[in-house]
């Protein structure tokens, strides 16, 4: 074999070898001749499936608009509350992308790619609360040991002061304090009550020096009693409506905390090193909170708000603090040729005026 033939054969082999990766690499056109498999899971209001099998939600509608712009066919594959299986399927390219409430993370970025973000999700805390409306709810908050103990103490003081004053005044002042025991003690309690409330009708007045001394001490003591009772009453009606020991993020390390697998809330609790009970889906976690199995639930505020509104769970309350903000994005296998086209389409959709209306319709807010 001549040297020229050997060189030509070697060049041909090298060219074929270098062309193999390029031939194996999928192209954008390849995705237009088949349906994309889009992984998702039910996380209202971002992805939910109706009884008729039709998918809806903020993330779903975003993808529908992106696919329409890029002229891509697709079908959804549901992962039943199993985010780990969905991510594994994406890595092994059993599915072409993931559209759900997928938070952008450094760990995820190392395993696959994310599109541009389309929503900033604020992580919040839900706790149990008492209903604030209705006579029965108000009475339940009034008849607590926190309020009944001061009331009992106040009644005891009125009885003590009234009886003491009657014992001193009954002989020298029978016109104001009846010598008969029941009637006289009643007169004494009446005087103590009107003096405490600063009403001071003047219909009953002590005339002995010991009676006046008791009256003077009682006038100043009653000021303290009224102030204490007012503060206790306000606490029972306002602060006492929260039935959880969690009033803010600082209480979470000492509380029983729950979260939902695959959410930004779970990522935040792990980053904080909190001991948490992880539930596979939100409705199970919410019912655990209602039953008192956990004292607080850490999940995205938008997801919590939708669940509370959907099921009319007025005994759950979302605290005002936002713990963290996590971006949601479409997850795509590393090196996918669809990345650039999807990114441009996401930017086009999210910068359109209709996007804010869509966010408000599903989430009720445009910011965390």
- Summarize the amount of helix as a percent range: 40-55%
Q: Terminal Cα separation, in Å?
A: 74 Å
Number of domains: 3
CATH fold annotation of the largest domain = D-Maltodextrin-Binding Protein, domain 2
Q: β content, as a range?
A: 5-15%
Helix segment tally:
14
CATH class of the largest domain: Alpha Beta
The CATH homologous superfamily of the largest domain: Periplasmic binding protein-like II
Biggest sheet features: 6 strands, mixed
* Poorly predicted segments: 13-25
Radius of gyration, CA atoms, in whole angstroms: 35 Å
Structural class: alpha/beta
Domain Ionotropic glutamate receptor C-terminal: 35-365
InterPro entries: Ionotropic_Glu_rcpt, Iontro_rcpt_C, Solute-binding_3/MltF_N
Membrane topology: Multi-pass membrane protein
Keywords: Glycoprotein, Ion channel, Ion transport, Membrane, Receptor, Signal, Transmembrane, Transmembrane helix, Transport
């Amino acid at each position: 074999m001549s040297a020229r033939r050997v060189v030509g054969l070697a060049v041909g082999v090298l060219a074929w070898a270098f062309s193999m990766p390029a031939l194996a690499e999928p192209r954008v056109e390849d995705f237009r001749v088949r349906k994309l498999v889009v992984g998702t899971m039910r996380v209202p209001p971002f992805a939910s499936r109706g009884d008729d099998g039709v998918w809806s939600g903020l993330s779903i509608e975003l993808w529908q608009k992106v696919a329409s712009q890029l002229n891509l066919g697709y079908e959804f594959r549901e992962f039943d509350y199993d985010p780990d299986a969905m991510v594994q399927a994406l890595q092994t390219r059993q599915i072409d992308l993931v559209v759900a409430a997928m938070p952008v993370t450094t760990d995820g970025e190392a395993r696959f790619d994310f599109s541009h973000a389309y929503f900033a999700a604020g992580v919040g805390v839900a706790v149990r609360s008492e209903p604030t409306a209705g006579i029965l709810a108000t009475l339940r908050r009034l008849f607590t040991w926190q309020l009944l103990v001061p009331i009992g103490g106040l009644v005891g003081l009125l009885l003590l002061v009234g009886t003491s004053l009657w014992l001193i005044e009954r002989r020298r002042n029978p016109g104001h304090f009846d010598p008969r025991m029941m009637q006289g003690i009643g007169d004494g309690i009446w005087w103590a009550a009107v003096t405490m409330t600063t009403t001071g009708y003047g219909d009953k007045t002590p005339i002995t020096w010991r009676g006046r001394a008791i009256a003077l001490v009682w006038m100043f003591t009653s000021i303290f009693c009224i102030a204490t009772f007012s503060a206790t009453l306000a606490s029972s009606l306002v602060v006492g409506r929260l039935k959880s020991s969690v009033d803010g993020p600082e209480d979470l390390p000492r509380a029983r905390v729950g979260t939902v697998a695959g959410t930004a809330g779970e990522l935040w609790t792990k980053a904080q090193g909190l001991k948490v009970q992880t539930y596979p889906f939100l409705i199970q976690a919410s019912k655990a909170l209602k039953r008192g199995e956990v004292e607080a639930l850490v999940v995205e505020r938008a997801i919590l708000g939708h669940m509370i509104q959907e099921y009319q769970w007025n005994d759950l309350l979302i605290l005002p603090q936002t713990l963290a903000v996590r971006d949601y994005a479409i997850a795509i296998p590393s090196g996918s040729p669809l990345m650039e086209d999807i990114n441009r389409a996401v930017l086009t959709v999210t910068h359109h005026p209709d996007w804010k209306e869509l966010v408000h319709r599903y989430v009720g807010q445009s910011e965390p």
